[in-house]
Amino acid sequence: MTVSAATPDYERSPALTAAAAASSVLLDITQAGDKLLAVGERGLIIYSDDGRSWTQAQVPLSETLTAVSFASAEQGWAVGHGGTILHSSDGGKSWQLQFDGDQANQQWLSYTKARQAALDTQIENLEQTSSGEDSDLLSDLRIEAEDAGFAVEDAELAVTTGPADPFLDIWFGDVNNGIAVGAYGMIYRTDNGGKDWKLAAAGIKNSYRYHYYSLTADTAGRLFLSGEAGLMYRSLDGGKQWQLLGPFYDGSLFGVLSHGDEILSYGLRGNVFRSSDGGDSWQTLNEDIPFSLYGGSTLSNGNIVLVGSAGGIAISEDGGDTFTTQDHPSRSSFSAVTGDASNAIYVVGMSGVVSIIKREAP
Length: 362
Hints:
This protein has 2 helices and 27 strands. The chain has 362 residues and is α+β, with helices and mostly antiparallel strands. The strands form 7 sheets. A 4-stranded antiparallel beta sheet has the order 1-2-3-4, with no helix packed on it.
């Protein structure tokens, strides 16, 4: 006898209680007021008042979560696999689903269809009015239209097969304005605290749909977005329009952070870059960091901490001019780092919260 049953969607089930939550895979960590809060695999979110004892939050799904951002002590957002965006209004104790990959796929499909239709109209109009001098332009437009058709087919397939692409970072400037970015050029904006998330791909040039990895803002309010293949963008209008900067590197830039009036970006093979003029030019910094860099933070005392593969930790006390490096005994890759008001350093990665390094403020 054959028994037929629908396959349970475990990822859409509430996150299970983890026996050793603080030792599970964690991918990002931040501060929510006086609390520390970390997110990771299978919908795991944990929070702590002291960095030693951790409590697991109530999360409505089991998708792996990749990044978290708090605009205030109470209002926070987390993103992850399957196009997931979660929201908390109680300091991270409980979470609600705001947006998912099904909505993302539908918006992307509408966008690709509109772009294809616009190109077809442009080609038709040019064919009717062309005097023969526009042959090169017509040829380019036809190639674009063909690519747009493939994009529509891919988008239709994504709607059929379901959510797959992950968000990789989220940034909020205040409790209303936020941006979520991720794999294959995913970029969505909100101006009402996440009640509505809208595709923002029209404002950024990324025809190859490279991944976006990290977002930050400088003291002047300029936004910076780093990504695959050395992508670095700047926005002067809150993320509506983006300008491609550089290029100054051809490898992945996994992170970008602000340090006073300066911006640092980092990535593969220990590469670190700094801009002191709002992103117009970039300087290569320390070339002796022997590990790839996946996460970074500026502490309250001004120190910069970068973390990465094989337990690597790099600390700069002079704005990035020099770094001292160390390897954590676990040799476990780290993905994110933050600090608290006492300048303690909290690192998360494949083995959870694996290191607390006390450093005195100068």
